[in-house]
Amino acid sequence: MMNLLNVRKSYGSGPSKVEVLKGINLKIETAETLALVGKSGSGKSTLLSLMSGLDSVDEGEIWIKGNCVSRMPEKELTRFRCQNMGIVFQQFHLVSTLTAFENVLLPLNLLKDPQAEVIANKLIDQVGLTHRAHHLPSELSGGESQRVALARALSTRPTILFADEPSGNLDEDTGNKVMDLLFKMVHETGTTLVLVTHDLDLAARCSRIIHLEHGSLV
Fold first, then answer.
1. How far apart are CA 105 and CA 153, in angstroms?
2. Max CA pair span of the chain
3. Where are the domains of the chain?
4. Is 193 left (phi over 0), alpha (psi -120 to 50) or beta?
5. What top-level class would CATH report for the domain 30-56+81-217?
6. In angstroms, what CA-CA distances link 79 with 69, 84, 87, 114, 215?
7. SS3 3
């Protein structure tokens, strides 16, 4: 599914240059659930941003489904990401002017999916928010917002889902319910999952755990 070859990333320049990732080599199999753990500042979120094409590598290559995404032109990468990847953030990142239903519908409309409304309605129902479908994000709780974000991320039936501390802004009970839902939907669809978390109990729910320390896998 995914192959990282000697991936390096730094920020800044000169004396202030910080090497965040130091030659990462990693293979991820189809339908695998992978937890990426490490202390704050270890490079977890940076690695996820590179994997998902939201940031660019300084050196190395990232391959997904036989495509070198780290070398793709931006327009091609945007379409590839929309067709193959789903992303769930800690901060939800819902469009504030769109309802829950419209947020889920958005990536499907971008792909001009003829079944867009049917799929969006089904996903809203699967995450238990049919009664909140026409509410704006400002009218939703944190748990409801994250469920909408999950439905949106899975709306295009991605082959790989990236999740960056998806329960980090939720209380423990709500976070557990959202993560139960995430794992349930991922297993049902056979979606590959890359989960960034500092929660070792949550990481233990994945089929593999890798540790990042000072920019290197240990």
1. 10
2. 55
3. 30-56+81-217
4. beta
5. alpha beta
6. 11, 9, 14, 17, 29
7. strand
Task: Give the percent of the chain with pLDDT over 70.
Answer: 100
> What pLDDT does residue 117 have?
94
In this structure, the strands spanning 208-213 and 2-11 are unpaired
- Average pLDDT for 83-109: 91
Structure-block tokens of residue 65: 């489904």
Beta partners for 180? none
Amino acid sitting at position 49 = S
User: In the 8-state DSSP scheme, what is residue 130?
Assistant: G
At 187-199, the pLDDT tens digits run 988 899 999 988 8
* The residue to which tokens 């490079």 are assigned: 43
* Residue located via tokens 């391959």: 63
Taking residue 195's Cβ as centre, other Cβ atoms within 10 Å add up to 29
